[in-house]
Amino acid sequence: MDRENQTVISEFLLLGLSSQPEQQRILFWLFLCVYFVTVIGNLLIMLAIGLDVRLHSPMYFFLANLSFVDICSSSVTIPKMLVNHITKSNSISYVECMMQMYFFITFINMDGFLLVVMAYDRYVAICHPLHYITVMRPRLCILLVAISWVITNLHALLHTLLMIQLSFCADNTIPHFFCDPYPVQKLSCSDTYISDLMVFTVGGVVFVTPFTCIAISYVFIFSNVMKIPSTQGIQKALSTCGSHLTVVSLFYGAIMGIYLRPSSSYSAVDTVATVIFTVVTPMLNPFIYSLRNQDMKVALRRLVLTKILSSKIFYSSPLSPLPKTASNLI
């Protein structure tokens, strides 16, 4: 077969997670609910952090960015699956597939980089508390996030450019609900050696380096925590890291077993693992951080209470007196 560096097909077919109509309907409503909860939950965290002055700190700045990235990563994959179910069409154009792949790689990588800077923030707060304000300056926080965006976009661009060099000749069915790089690459009739090599080198560095940095940070954190004399102090220190560790475990536990292997070994089990870090983790992040963080719970309650009171004031009669609690807020 002639290995030309051109694309023969103009579209792909996304088979989804099931071929059974009944299961497809269940998955549609399940993914719709998950997407709704993901967007609303992460938006509430962003609003709570933005409106509560007490949460204007590096840790919550990174958390707000993580919530934004979670909304974006879910919006790259889930809406297309929902639209395809409504329109009874499984097709996705070649250009749209490459764009979806680019943004998928960008936002997934960005999740990992944000988890790194959050781990560094916790390391400085616990191991060097007296220098926290001078080290975690606003300029440094913005710089860390900006560098993360640059690196993740460059990696996504490199991977996408390599993908468009491949030829797709006959089979265009993707056994997934979005254009995951590995299932798409398996459809190629070109030699994927260079692409696999780049995944193991550049992709490995982008994925493994953040995980290594997180592990090193927590080695220092735990060794420092063990030196705290009081049990209450240890519990307080660990409670600030519990949410972050839970998210790291969910994210890297699923992602490292999939993309650090050759694309030819991709299977249905990997599809389930992909759903975990693309759909489940962004939905769980708001609950993990809000339920395990007292400051976030207070800020969210204040946000909800303010909205309820403002709606009551808006719909009340102009001649009627303001509620006592509302007048106190004003």
Notes on the structure:
With 330 residues, the protein is an all-alpha fold. It has helices at residues 21-51, 58-87, 94-127, 132-135, 138-164, 181-186, 193-225, 231-259, 268-291, 294-315, 324-329; strands spanning 11-14, 91-93, 173-174. Strands 2-1-3 form a three-stranded mixed β-sheet. Helix 1 runs antiparallel to helix 2, helix 2 packs antiparallel against helix 3 and helix 3 runs parallel beside helix 7 (193-225). It is globular, with a radius of gyration of 23 Å. The N and C termini lie far apart (75 Å).
Radius of gyration: 23 Å
Principal-axes shape call: globular
The share of residues in extended strands comes to under 5%
Summarize the main sheet. Answer: 3 strands, mixed
What kind of oligomer do you see?
single chain
Helix % is over 70%
Quote the distance from N terminus to C terminus.
Answer: 75 Å
What is the H-and-E element order? EHHEHHHEHHHHHH
Continuous helix count:
11
User: Structural class of the helix and strand makeup?
Assistant: mainly alpha
- Identify low-pLDDT runs: 1-7, 314-330
Read across the widest sheet, the strand sequence of neighbours is 2-1-3
Mean pLDDT: 79
Strand tally is 3
